[in-house]
Amino acid sequence: MTQNYRITLLPGDGIGPEIMAVAVDVLKIIGQQFDLQFEFQEALIGGAAIDATGEPLPSTTLDTCRQSDAVLLAAIGGYKWDSLPSNIRPEAGLLGLRAGLGLFANLRPAQILPQLIDASTLKREVVEGVDIMVVRELTGGIYFGKPKGIFTTDTGEKRGVNTMVYTESEIERIGRVAFETARKRKGKLCSVDKANVLEVSQLWRDRITKLSQEYPDVELSHLYVDNAAMQLVRAPKQFDTIVTGNLFGDILSDAAAMLTGSIGMLPSASLGASGPGVFEPVHGSAPDIAGQDKANPLAQVLSAAMMLRYGLDQPKAADRIEQAVFQVLEQGDRTGDIMSLGKNLLGCRAMGDALIKVLEEK
Ligand code: NAD
């Protein structure tokens, strides 16, 4: 029976529309092959929304997203809007979207593809086979804790304050996403904290340990964040799934991503307790190459695969997209950012065509 899905497309700015066009073409053909009917609705976000409406996240966009089964986002931002006040800058649209949809879990895979191993700055033997998923808490911790601000003390000195805070329920809900994610992978979860120094981390470790009793099939370990950073570059293959708070996750997910060496290849997913998730590449709007048909669309295409796997529960369709990406790389097709000697240099559109050809071959 045909499954129907409403997908909100947010192409955004810069290379966004170019890479989104490729992902939509891929989804259309995947829809035909897996009996999935996608109803696409495009909406404005970021600079494009500011230009059209004066706001980075018009309420109509948020409403459209809320009524959909999943949101596929490209990227926002660009030089044109850099001097605007922070509450009406493109980035405010992204934060508003996350808050508006209650997205508290950010999933960032870092997988080394054998064809791109030389793009990593680390030695082949260290990174070969790396396949890590970082699950980062997105709406709590030190980025949102109160009190926050810059205050003046009685002696007239300025004092900057942020507060790292997690409640048991916040820890438990991100913990559940992490255990479920680890279950779908190799069944290993490493929780990262700073429990030797921070009380908030002691509570984190305690709750995650208690929660593990409900997931006896997942092997749980703990690391302090400084050691985790070290282990990520020393022996990254020991990791399968990592769960951590907002600040540590922000830093560790970028470090893990860079093991792969290529920002144009990295997708991500942001999920809430219910309602649609948002699926987007890790990279930004790349204004330096926008409109030149030079962008790598593969992170966007892999974000569509994550949407199928984690947002719509269609793992076979997701597998098919990931295999097609693997295959175009295998046949030597490359965009400029991942180009190496002896490979075929393609533009964004031609990379999309190569993917479609592979998908049509079946
Ligand atoms: P960026 O990720 O846009 O670009 C960094 C470098 O990587 C650039 O040289 C760019 O050309 C290259 N690059 C990025 N994606 C690529 C792709 N798919 N194919 C080929 N090359 C690619 O980061 P930046 O330059 O720091 O930021 C540019 C704008 O994007 C800013 O306005 C920033 O605020 C915004 N931004 C948005 C997001 C988002 O939408 N989630 C994330 C990061 C930055």
Automatic annotation (TrEMBL):
Domain Isopropylmalate dehydrogenase-like: 6-355
Domain of life: Bacteria
Entries under InterPro entries matching the protein: IsoCit/isopropylmalate_DH_CS (IPR019818), IsoPropMal-DH-like_dom (IPR024084), Isopropylmalate_DH (IPR004429)
Gene3D superfamilies with a match to the protein in the record: Isopropylmalate Dehydrogenase
UniProt binding sites for NAD(+): 78-91, 284-296
Binding site for Mg(2+): D226, D250, D254
Any single Pfam family the record assigns to this protein: Iso_dh
Reactions listed under catalytic activity: (2R,3S)-3-isopropylmalate + NAD(+) = 4-methyl-2-oxopentanoate + CO2 + NADH
GO CC terms in record: cytosol
Protein name: 3-isopropylmalate dehydrogenase
The organism of origin for this protein: Amazonocrinis nigriterrae CENA67
